[in-house]
Amino acid sequence: MSRKDVQDRSTLILIKEFITNSQSLRAYQEVPPEKTKRWWRKKVLKWKKDGLHKKLRQILDVLTARYEGVLYQILRHSGVSAGALKSTVTAVWVSCQDKILTLSDYREFSAVLWESYVSVSPVEARTLRPRFMLRQIVDEMPSSDERGVLIYRAYDTASSIDPPGKEVLTKLNKAYEMLHLELLKQGDDLEILTGGEIALEDIKNFEAPFAHYEEWFFPE
After folding, report:
1. What is the pTM for the complete model shown?
2. Which of 157, 154, 155, 63 is nearest to 109 (CA)?
């Protein structure tokens, strides 16, 4: 599996693979010594573990990059100093990796990642939870300028330097429409995927210009 293959996968697919491979690696690490007495069994076990380590590094590189912006945002909002941001983000992912080893449903990943953030943060940035939970769903939208603008404006720290111009606002409005269709597609999974933050019942009657989405992405 090449790095490009990993980068081309959606966030939800990467989450599934991250959990599955992490749990498989732990299982191989816990194989008792008496079952690997023969040299060829040790070699096979090492080959399997090395392969999983490589896959996990590739997946984690992409996942951490996709969540980096929003994690930095919520940690700043929580009062973490600029000098401590990088180490705190690392602590979030270390905590998350421990928690997913017993996770039975990949749809609960974002809730687990949020819990990991809460465990290392001085306070909880509750107003940014909807934006955080929507990160995985935004990647499920069709690839387009509108999706790119939404990701940049909502999840890239540099985007907050300048207010959006008319063209950007037009693309954001279109992106909200696309996001709405994607959320409807998730159906009953939506509530689980977002840790109870957003349910189908909450959004099914939303209409353009989808002001609720703007409030979730850009709370005052």
Report:
1. 0.91
2. 63
